[in-house]
Structures are given as structure tokens and as C-alpha cells.
């Protein structure tokens, strides 16, 4: 199986910017970056961010020395922002504790912030030729078909990966598994005739490949109805930075609170400002709503224009707060939903200014 996979990969490998040509030494920083970006994200999306990121942070030291604001801004739109925060923390730790050299020891590397079992296996095998296993969604599908198991346990999957990893070119082997799952052993209508493992795949031999692995029933996501306060004062908008340990931590946003049962959306917006920054506002009108789905929850953000009543904003529930002119909004790292609200707010402020003739 190893031999068949390696031969297939060398003929069919995808041309991706983080891969080096055969015989060249991979850059561990670039390998690590690609694996962090690829977590729960499609390759076609990562391609746009990867090149732009390296223009901004070409080396590990450049990233370690960068402010978190710059890091999150470069990651803006890629989602799952904890990946960026953890990557930044881990790179700083590499500089401080490992002299700026990414550890080649699997245990040392796995101890870095945000490094899980898959990331450790991918980076160690690809960058340092260590015989470390990997299992992700694509590999799970490949293995489930090989052994014709509708719902293989994590323990079984990792055991299979660990049996394949030892031997020459473990990095190429793991990349072969990734590419096989992404291009041939796909979810719908797998291209079995092109598969290097077709003679050893139990699901193909039994005709069950389309049912392996069995689809998992998606659980209905809870819904959050959130009042978002668009507070305008003297031509500027109030932004807050979320705490590092909160959802979308470290990013900037408009003050917001999930509505309580029976609570008016305007009252929730006023409460968001009062409890969040200790200031008083009066809800005025709704600009619109923005919907966004996270991994574990669906959210609807109601953008409520709020009139400033007084009090100096202080970050009570946030890390920072700032008054920002509309033309300066693009300097701040905002989650996707907040970018839409910012566009509504800027348009509203421009219209209000035009009406008053200011």
C-alpha cells in the first residue's frame, strides 16, 4: 500500500505553493503555516491567504515580532481566529524557548500552543521526515473505505495511520493520503478507477464505497438573537475589542449582547453599551440584520443605531474600546459579520452627515 501510494503521488501530486519540489528541503515555517490555515478550510480559500500572509510575515521571526492586531488583520476573513492567535503565540514561544528554530522533536513541537495531533504529524513528517501519522477528514474517508467501516473509531483510524507512517518518505506518504482523499476518494462518486489502492479497498470490492463512511446526522444548531449597538458620536463609531478567551477573541466589533427572553432588541442594544463600556445610549432605529453560522451556533446580529447620552466608554467587558472614523474601519480586524455591520454603519453615518449638511 505504501509503495502504491508513493508512486501515485509522484505522478499526480497537486502543485501547491507550500510544497517544495522533489529533492528540495521544505521550510518548516511554511509547512506549519499551511497546515494551520488548512484546518477546516478548503485549499482554494487558503491559496489566497497564504501568499498574502508570506508577503506580510515572510519569516518566523517577522511573525513573532508582529503585533497581534496585524496578525488578526492578515487573517481577517479566514475564520476560526483562534488558529491565528495560537499560531502567533506558538511562534513567539519558538523564538523564546527554541532559539527561533521550529523543534524537530515531535513531543517538543506538540507541546506548542494550538498544535494538535494532526498538525504535529503533518509538520513533523513533511518538514522533518519524521514517521508521524496523520488523520483528518479526507484520511478518515479513505480509511473507512479501505476497511469498509461505516463509522471507524478514532483509535482505529490513528492505528491505521501509524501502521503506514514508518518507512521512507513519510512526508510524501501523508501528502499522498491527503491528495487521494481530496481528488480521487471524494465524498460523492469516488473515482475508484484512478485509485492506486483499488485492488485492496474492501468497500470497492463489495460495492459499498458510496456509503462509506456513513453520513453523520447534523445536530440542529442553537440560535442567538443578538443586539448590536451602532453608536455614532461626533462622526465616529464605537468599537470594542473582544477578550482573548471569548469567541472571536482579539478581534474588534460593535458592542453586542444576546437578547434575553422577552427583551426588546433596542433595550438589549442599550444594555450592551451600558454593561460593556459603562456608558449611556438610547436605541434609535434598526439598520438591518446580518446572519452568520459558527461551528456550534447560528447568530443573527441586529444592527441598532444608538444615540449617545453620555459617559466616557471604559472597557468593562472588553479588552479595549475606541472611537473610529468610518474611513479608518478598514484598519481594524473585524469578523465577517461585523464587516457587514460596519458597512451599514458607515453608509448610515454618511447619509446622516449629508442630511445635516455637515
Q: How would you summarize what this structure contains?
A:
By secondary structure, the protein is an alpha+beta fold. The protein has helices at residues 2-12, 28-38, 43-56, 60-64, 68-75, 82-97, 106-110, 117-128, 137-146, 154-164, 170-183, 202-206, 265-277, 336-356, and strands at residues 223-233, 236-241, 252-253, 256-258, 280-293, 298-310, 320-324.
Total E-strand runs? 7
Highest-level CATH class of the largest domain: Mainly Alpha
Question: What is the radius of gyration computed over CA atoms, rounded to a whole number of angstroms?
Answer: 24 Å
What is the fold named in CATH at topology level of the largest domain?
Endonuclease III, domain 1
The SSE string, one letter per element, is HHHHHHHHHHHHEEEEHEEEH
Give the termini separation. 73 Å
Shape: elongated
- Count of spatially separate domains: 2
What percent of the residues sit in helical stretches (DSSP H or I)?
40-55%
Biggest sheet architecture:
7 strands, mixed
Structural class of the helices, strands and pairings?
A: alpha+beta
**At the fourth CATH level, what is the homologous superfamily of the largest domain?**
Hypothetical protein, domain 2
Unreliable stretches, pLDDT < 50, 5 or more residues? none
Proportion in β-strands: 15-25%
Q: Please state the average pLDDT score.
A: 95
Q: How many alpha or pi helices? A: 14
CATH architecture of the largest domain: Orthogonal Bundle
Amino acid at each position: 500500500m505504501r509503495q502504491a501510494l508513493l508512486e501515485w503521488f509522484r505522478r499526480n501530486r497537486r502543485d501547491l505553493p507550500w510544497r517544495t519540489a522533489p529533492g528540495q528541503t521544505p521550510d518548516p515555517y511554511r509547512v506549519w503555516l499551511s497546515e494551520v490555515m488548512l484546518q477546516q478550510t478548503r485549499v482554494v480559500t487558503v491559496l489566497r491567504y497564504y501568499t498574502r500572509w508570506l508577503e506580510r510575515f515572510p519569516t518566523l521571526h517577522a511573525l513573532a515580532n508582529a503585533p497581534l492586531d496585524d496578525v488578526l488583520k492578515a487573517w481577517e476573513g479566514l475564520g476560526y481566529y483562534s488558529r491565528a492567535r495560537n499560531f502567533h503565540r506558538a511562534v513567539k514561544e519558538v523564538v523564546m524557548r527554541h532559539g527561533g528554530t521550529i523543534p524537530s522533536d515531535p513531543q517538543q513541537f506538540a507541546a506548542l500552543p494550538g498544535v494538535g495531533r494532526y498538525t504535529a504529524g503533518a509538520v513533523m513528517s513533511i518538514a522533518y521526515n519524521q514517521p508521524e501519522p496523520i488523520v483528518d477528514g479526507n484520511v478518515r474517508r479513505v480509511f473507512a473505505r479501505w476497511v469498509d467501516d461505516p463509522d471507524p473509531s478514532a483509535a482505529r483510524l490513528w492505528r491505521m495511520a501509524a501502521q503506514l507512517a514508518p518507512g521512507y518518505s513519510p512526508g510524501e506518504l501523508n501528502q499522498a493520503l491527503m491528495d487521494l482523499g481530496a481528488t480521487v476518494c471524494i465524498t460523492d462518486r469516488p473515482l475508484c478507477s484512478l485509485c492506486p489502492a483499488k485492488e485492496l479497498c474492501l468497500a470497492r470490492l463489495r460495492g459499498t464505497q458510496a456509503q462509506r463512511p456513513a453520513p453523520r446526522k447534523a445536530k440542529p444548531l442553537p440560535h442567538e438573537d443578538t443586539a448590536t449597538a451602532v453608536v455614532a458620536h461626533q462622526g465616529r463609531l464605537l468599537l470594542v475589542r473582544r477578550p482573548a478567551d471569548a469567541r472571536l477573541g482579539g478581534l474588534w466589533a460593535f458592542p453586542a449582547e444576546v437578547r434575553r427572553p422577552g427583551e426588546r432588541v433596542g433595550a438589549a442594544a442599550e444594555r450592551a453599551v451600558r454593561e460593556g463600556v459603562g456608558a449611556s445610549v438610547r436605541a434609535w432605529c434598526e439598520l438591518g440584520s446580518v446572519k452568520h453560522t459558527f461551528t456550534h451556533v447560528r447568530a443573527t446580529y441586529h444592527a441598532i443605531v444608538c444615540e449617545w447620552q453620555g459617559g466616557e466608554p471604559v472597557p468593562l467587558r472588553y479588552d479595549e474600546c475606541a472611537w473610529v472614523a468610518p474611513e479608518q474601519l478598514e484598519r481594524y480586524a473585524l469578523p465577517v459579520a461585523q464587516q457587514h455591520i460596519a458597512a451599514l454603519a458607515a453608509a448610515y453615518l454618511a447619509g446622516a452627515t449629508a442630511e445635516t449638511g455637515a
